[in-house]
Design a protein that fits this description.
Layout lengths: L1 H40 L5 H22 L3 H6 L6 H20 L2 H8 L2 H12 L2 E2 L2 H21 L5 H23 L7 H22 L2 H4 L9 H28 L5 H4 L1 H22 L5 H12 L1 H6 L5 E2 L4
Antiparallel strand pairs: 1-2
Helix pairs in contact: 1-4, 1-11, 1-13, 2-9, 2-11, 4-8, 4-9, 5-14, 6-8, 7-14, 13-14
């Protein structure tokens, strides 16, 4: 009986990280699909309102998480000026990402989004004088090749303006990652960072709804009085907030050495890749289909991401070599 109780206890403990990963994958796919449905199917092309709502819901959830952990001091730290550059690029990334997702199929969006890893490498090389390892260079060459074929296959089917927005999205994500890399051992706290990003995004997007004309234009939106629109908007905010909460759970458990092999950064990149692969495959049955060859290159682009992210810790500074 004692051995059986120990086995049940071990099974409960060991299954918890995998349940966290599965939840992260499910909410990631669900959030992306709901966003695509609202932006492309319902054609709600008002990113300041849409992203502002998502940031507001995420902000409420993050505040509840921090208060539940009795970390009220983190609420005051989120207005620290050190987080401002990251917050600015965060707003640029979500705004541009929303504009791009409106015009680009999910497989192409996810495949091209991985170019943010290449922008991280280039920014580290030119701004921080850091040099990537050879395996990182090889993996990113595969990624660049995959994205080049995606563009060649879809350039006639997609509006060129969409690639402008995906470029802004990718570069903004790159700057966000470089900021986190620079301040990883200094001021960075992932809870405070997410809180600061969503707070700044909400405070900046709220007045932009008026200055960009979205607040006036939304009155003529044809689906404004349909329940499917409001259900989708509510779900988009909830799924986005829970995705942020699960991300925080990964980063918090990453500090625990006993579970780092299950929930650490490498595991997070693996679950992220799995989420993107599932989204690419399932989107073929839910939204518009892409060419088979394009889908294959999008899958290759997503599958090479864990190899790049797992080797990011192996960057060496030129000054140290």
């Amino acid at each position: 009986m004692k051995r059986q109780r120990l086995y049940k206890h071990y099974l409960k403990v060991s299954m918890k990280p995998y349940a966290l990963g599965i939840s992260f994958v499910i909410f990631g796919v669900a959030s992306l699909f709901v966003n695509k449905y609202i932006l492309s199917i319902l054609k709600f092309t008002f990113p300041t309102i849409f992203q502002g709502w998502q940031c507001f819901v995420s902000l409420i959830v993050l505040i509840c998480i921090i208060k539940r952990r009795n970390s009220a001091s983190k609420l005051r730290r989120c207005v620290d000026i050190h987080y401002l550059p990251e917050a600015i690029f965060f707003v640029c990334s979500i705004y541009a990402g929303s504009k791009a997702l409106t015009k680009i199929p999910i497989p192409v969006f996810l495949g091209m989004q991985n170019l943010s890893l290449v922008s991280v490498t280039l920014l580290k090389m030119f701004l921080l004088d850091e040099r990537p390892k050879n395996n990182t260079i090889f993996s990113e060459m595969v990624l660049l090749t995959a994205c080049a074929f995606i563009w060649l296959n879809e350039q006639t089917a997609i509006n060129p303006a969409a690639y402008f927005w995906i470029f802004i999205h990718v570069v903004s994500l790159g700057f966000c990652c470089v900021f986190e890399h620079v301040h990883e051992g200094d001021i960075l706290d992932h809870e405070v960072l997410l809180l600061a990003n969503n707070l700044f995004a909400f405070l900046s997007l709220a007045p932009c709804t008026f200055f960009f004309g979205d607040l006036q234009a939304v009155k003529a939106y044809p689906n404004l009085y349909f329940s499917k629109f409001y259900i989708g908007v509510v779900l988009s905010g909830v799924f986005s907030a829970f995705s942020s909460a699960l991300y925080l759970q990964f980063t918090n458990q990453d500090r625990d050495s006993s579970s780092a092999h299950l929930t650490g950064a490498n595991s997070l990149s693996g679950y992220t890749a799995l989420s993107r692969v599932l989204a690419i495959i399932l989107s073929q049955f839910v939204f518009e289909r892409t060419l088979a060859i394009t889908t294959i290159w999008c899958l290759i682009s997503c599958l090479v991401v864990p190899a790049i992210q797992s080797s990011e810790a192996n960057f060496t500074s030129v000054s140290e070599s």
